[in-house]
């Protein structure tokens, strides 16, 4: 398959783009929102095979496309890592979240590429959530909109340098990791 082509069963299309917001992992292939790092023309067929045959049954801890990231508030620069609540052995990211009149804690997986969350309040699918730092109480917002659903993206400082942006819409799997130059 060449760039711009779609398989006969219309299940896969190959498109080239200039940027997916993950330069440090490049070259990158994105399949159903999952980032595959260090790809080349020989690694694409196994990625497609894995997508078709393994699907979502793959264990997160065994997936080398998923890795830990430590983040801080972009306003006060204090850590958002919750070392008391672990997911697959990694501390979760804890923030404060509001939607409608509901307000409470929200924990995100700190494994980049993993979309699991824990929440004090039930958050209905498609709801746009407002995020706040639990330390300085500043709203975490950015002017950038999600490329997939147009909801606001939420910036989090990556401790090693760069910014992790996650979509504020419940259920959207759009995220970007910009580690700078």
Fold and architecture overview:
The protein has 181 residues and is mainly beta. The chain folds into two domains: 1-58, no CATH class; 67-178, no CATH class. Helix content is 6%, strand content 31%. It has one helix at 44-53; strands at residues 29-31, 34-36, 67-68, 71-72, 81-87, 90-99, 102-108, 111-112, 117-119, 130-132, 153-158, 163-167, 175-178. The strands form four sheets. Strands 5, 6, 7, 9 and 10 form a five-stranded antiparallel sheet that branches. The two termini are 32 Å apart.
- The count of strands amounts to 13
Sheet-strand content, in percent, reads 25-35%
H/E series, N to C? Answer: EEHEEEEEEEEEEE
- Gross geometry: globular
Q: Distance between termini?
A: 32 Å
Class based on secondary structure composition and strand pairing: mainly beta
Count of separate DSSP helical elements: 1
Q: Roughly how much helix do the residues carry, as a percent range?
A: under 10%
Low-confidence stretches: 56-61
Largest sheet: 5 strands, antiparallel
Number of domains: 2
Mean pLDDT: 82
Rg over C-alpha atoms, rounded to the nearest angstrom:
17 Å
Supply database-style keywords:
four-stranded antiparallel β-sheet, 181 residues, five-stranded antiparallel β-sheet, mainly beta, single chain, 2 domains
Secondary structure blueprint with pairings:
Elements: E1 29-31, E2 34-36, H1 44-53, E3 67-68, E4 71-72, E5 81-87, E6 90-99, E7 102-108, E8 111-112, E9 117-119, E10 130-132, E11 153-158, E12 163-167, E13 175-178
Antiparallel strand pairs: 1-2, 3-8, 4-11, 5-6, 6-7, 6-10, 7-9, 11-12, 12-13
């Amino acid at each position: 398959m060449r760039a711009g082509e779609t398989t006969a069963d219309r299940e896969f299309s190959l498109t080239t783009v200039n940027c997916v917001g993950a330069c440090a992992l490049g070259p990158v292939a994105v399949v159903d929102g999952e980032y595959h790092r260090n790809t080349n023309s020989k690694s694409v067929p196994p990625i497609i095979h894995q997508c078709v045959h393994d699907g979502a049954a793959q264990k997160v801890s065994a997936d080398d496309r998923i890795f830990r990231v430590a983040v801080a508030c972009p306003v006060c620069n204090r850590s958002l890592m919750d070392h008391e609540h672990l997911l697959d052995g990694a501390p979760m990211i804890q923030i404060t979240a509001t939607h409608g009149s509901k307000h409470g804690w929200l924990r995100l997986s700190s494994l980049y590429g993993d979309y699991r969350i824990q929440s004090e309040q039930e958050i209905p699918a498609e709801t746009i959530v407002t995020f706040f730092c639990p330390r300085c109480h500043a709203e975490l917002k950015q002017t950038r909109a999600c490329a997939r659903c147009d909801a606001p993206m939420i910036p989090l400082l990556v401790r090693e340098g760069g910014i992790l942006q996650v979509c504020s819409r419940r259920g959207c799997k759009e995220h970007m990791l910009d580690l700078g130059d």
